[in-house]
Amino acid sequence: MPTTTSPPKTILITGAARGIGLATAYQFNRIYPTDNVILADLSVYQTTAEYQIRTSFLYPDHATFLPVDIMDWGQMTTLFRTIVERYGGLDVVVANAGVMESKPVLDLEDVDEETGELKESVEAWWVLDVNLKGTVNSMCCWFDLWVLRGNLLVVGHEALRLAMYHMKENERPGSVVLVTSTSGYFGGTGVTAYVASKHGVVGLLRASQVTAQKYGIRVNAVAPFMTPTTMTAGLAQRWKDAGLETNAPDRVAEVIEQIALDTTRRGSCTLVAGKYLREMESTRAELLPTWLGEDVAGFMGKAMRFITDIGGYVLPGRN
Fold first, then answer.
1. d(CA 184, CA 181)
2. Three-class SS of residue 174?
3. Residue 224 backbone phi and psi in degrees, to 5
4. pTM score, two decimals?
5. Residues 304 and 178 in one domain
């Protein structure tokens, strides 16, 4: 068990009632018994989450469930402010909430019987809202909180904006961990909205680095492969029967905790595939000259340095 003379941290995890989120909450509670671990999820999961805290957590007095819908900006801002007022600050945020569509987004046979027109895929927007919008907003709020007080670790989308917002005036460095997926790098499964949203999280990881560095914040990510959760229930047994290795939620949770606290990491993303761990972003950067060719990679590198030197991309504004 780690020993430290620093004051107890306050750790927020969204999507924490089940799966990887619950395992991550348990991991922090187990390793850091004096820290305050906040499990945030939809109110429908409150009873089961509180039961898990009472019966499974090693230090249940230091774990609390708070209901929130991460797609509701008002609820998210209230969540962050409540934690700050109750615990005096926020040090770690794992914005882990994520969903997957229940039917194919690109179903070209899903036609309205009355009009004969193709129906809009409402589920696609729901998946993008939860997986991407939720992460963006959480990160901003967290950044501002970090500026106000203490370290902060974030995994998520709405969590990203809120976190950054709450961090921007703090004098101590913070850490953000975004939970993406192998689907953030590979799209062969055909799960359209989920794959698109997780690619968006990888883009967010890269795009957030300029702002993060400005405030001394570390933003990293984890990309789990096949992990047995409710999201993968329809595939898990056949995957096992095929002799393919899976992740365990607690294995992913261990990696999240390690990435969050590793002060040497900036802009990294660790792929977790069973016993295999691979760093994705640095290896991608090393392969760019081979992938693009030395000439194109050199030209694009020069162009990016130009944008950096002029203070960033000049936004067009609205007409």
1. 5
2. strand
3. -70, 145
4. 0.84
5. no
Compare 1 and 300 and report the one with higher pLDDT. 300
Domain of 120 in residue numbering reads as 10-279
Both 20 and 166 in one domain: the answer is yes
Quickly count: other Cβ atoms within 10 Å of residue 8's Cβ.
15
How far are the Cα atoms of 5, 21, 55 from residue 58, in angstroms, in the given order? 21, 17, 8
* Residue 2 domain flag: no
Distances in whole angstroms, Cα of residue 218 to Cα of each of 83, 151, 153 = 21, 10, 8
| SS (HEC) of 231-245 | HHHHHHHHHHHCCCC
What does the alpha-carbon distance between residue 81 and residue 157 come to, in Å, rounded to a whole number?
Answer: 17
pLDDT digits (tens, 9 = 90+) for 22-78: 999 999 999 999 999 999 999 999 999 999 999 999 999 999 999 998 878 889 889
Closest listed residue to residue 73, CA positions, set 125, 129, 122 = 129
Structurally, how many domains does the chain consist of?
2
